[in-house]
Amino acid sequence: MTLAAGPTALIGIHTAMVPIVLAAGGLTLLCGLVLYFMSHSDTTVPVGLRRTFHLLLVITMGIGLVQTIVGGFLLLSGGRPGNQLHFVYGGIVLLAIPVAYVYSDQKQVRRDILIMSIAALAIFGATLRAWATGPHPGH
Q1: For residue 15, how far is the Cα from the chain centroid?
Q2: What are the tens digits of pLDDT across the range 46-82?
Q3: Where in the chain are the domains?
Q4: Half-sphere exposure of residue 126, counting CA atoms within 13 Å on the CB side?
Q5: What is the four-CA torsion angle of 63, 86, 75, 70, rounded to 10 degrees?
Q6: Rounded distance between C-alpha atoms, residue 66 and residue 24, angstroms
Q7: pTM, rounded to two decimals
């Protein structure tokens, strides 16, 4: 891949954001699983934990959006991933939470927590795969 100074900087930003997306997705998944299992037992679920989960979902979705925007600018500036599947994985990172929200009915709380946790898992996995299919030296 032949890159000018602009695309090289964008690749640096896009690559540097990978651990941030992984951390956000991982924390969201972990919080969702704790919330899911606590809501199954007789334990009263702290309101703060529910709020934290919702906040982590919003943060993860926002970070995914920023990562997609940076990737879009990179594409427009001539950068290309090492594999076309990179675009599919990027789409999953961008759309997993909004699509999961559409499928949740906001009435069955435990089920909705599980759906959103699966979305966080999808983001985590898709981020790893996107990273593996991203730009590679010599392409």
Answers
A1: 14
A2: 889 999 999 999 999 999 999 999 999 999 998 888 8
A3: 5-132
A4: 25
A5: 10
A6: 13
A7: 0.87
